[in-house]
Amino acid sequence: MSAQRFRKKPVEVEAMQWTGSNRNALFDFTGGLFGRVHPEDRTDDPDQTGEIFVGANSVWVGVEDGEWIIHDSGGFYPCKPDIFEATYELAGEAS
Fold first, then answer.
1. What's the pLDDT tens digit per position in 18-58?
2. Strand locations in 5-74 (E)
3. Which of 64, 70, 59 is CA-nearest to residue 30?
4. What is the pTM of this model?
5. Contact criterion met (CB below 8 Å) for 69 and 26
6. Neighbours of 22 (CB within 10 A)
7. What 8-state DSSP symbol labels residue 69?
8. Does a structural domain hold residue 50?
9. Checking CA distances to 46, which of 1, 30, 64, 65 falls within 20 to 30 Å?
10. What per-residue string of b and e applies to 26-62 under the rule 16 or more CB within 10 Å gives b?
11. What domain range includes position 62?
């Protein structure tokens, strides 16, 4: 079997960027699945200022300032800003 080429299907997602200071907005957006990581708890990665529960893997994942939190049919997950910019374009306001 040889390799094949695939194109990502056009899909719209809802997303909100973590600024380091919009915890309440992200908490509401995710239905309580987002939290701030306090400085004294950043022993593994000092750049992680937040965390999101990724239901697909049933784990909490650290988030750095500037990362996007994406909501699609699979749930919520973080995305680095450069990957987000290369992958998504604005399609309108969230419903």
1. 999 999 999 999 999 999 999 888 888 889 999 999 999 99
2. 14-17, 34-36, 48-54, 59-64, 68-72
3. 70
4. 0.85
5. yes
6. 15
7. E
8. yes
9. 30
10. beebbeebbbbbeeeeeeeeeebbbbbbbeeeeeeeb
11. 14-87
